[in-house]
Amino acid sequence: MVVSHESHADVDRIFHALADSTRRDILALAVGDRYSVSALAKRYPMSFAAVQKHVAVLEGAGLITKERRGRERLVRADVDTVQRARVLLEGIEELWRARVDRIDDLLATEKRTTGGKQ
Amino acid sequence: MSVTSVEKDPESLTVTVRADLDATVERAWQLWADPHQFEQWWGAPGFPTTVIDHNLRAGGQITFFMTGTEGERHDSTWEVLAADPPRHLELRDADVDDDGRPNDGNAMTVMIITIAERDGGGAVMSIRTHFDSLSGMEKELMGFEEGMRIVFSQIEAVLAGTPV
User: Residue A21 — φ and ψ, nearest 5°?
Assistant: First the structure.
């Protein structure tokens, strides 16, 4: 899996999906266990339709998939996609850590060459 | 001295980095205000940054490009939203193609930089990056694939329960 090959539209869908606290909560539940939409709906103070809509956004972003068990369709997290989102955020952090390292080097080199004067 | 905190907020799509610098506030400002210094720290090693235009005042533009290991060129155009030396700077990165035209009109990144005196000496620089559409996040990571691979292998190792 190489993150840079992810299309922009895919990445936008992932982050749009993660930008809502209910959806993040649903995703966290779906990582640990299998839930039907109606079982999820009982956990939130909102309508079944509203929860179903959140599930559809997560599914559209590839963060969860649905699998059939008997008459029920159960929601499960797609761990690969969740990892992609994490990797992007980690990547931004690492990018800035590396930049600050270079800034430190720049400042330190200057101090050495000017004897500490700025 | 270095990075003291990193806050990643998927809700507001922001990453806030705070760093202690062994420099005065005025000196830290020059990291952004002096194009030659900016070139030295913005790009990753192997991806040299070349500044073309650098007009650091509200309404001004900063344009630069980074050259990749295969010689490919990534252009950037920033609009300066606010510049109050030596403490406050706001930049908007318009996602543009090779001719400087917006690629899709919605991939914008805003960076808010604040610099303040640090208790006990030195300066604190905070960079809050707001990824408007998140296409900007991928764009900013261009030329950072090597680092991404390292991070990903670390995550893989953690998930697999093996020591990094």
Answer: -70, -35
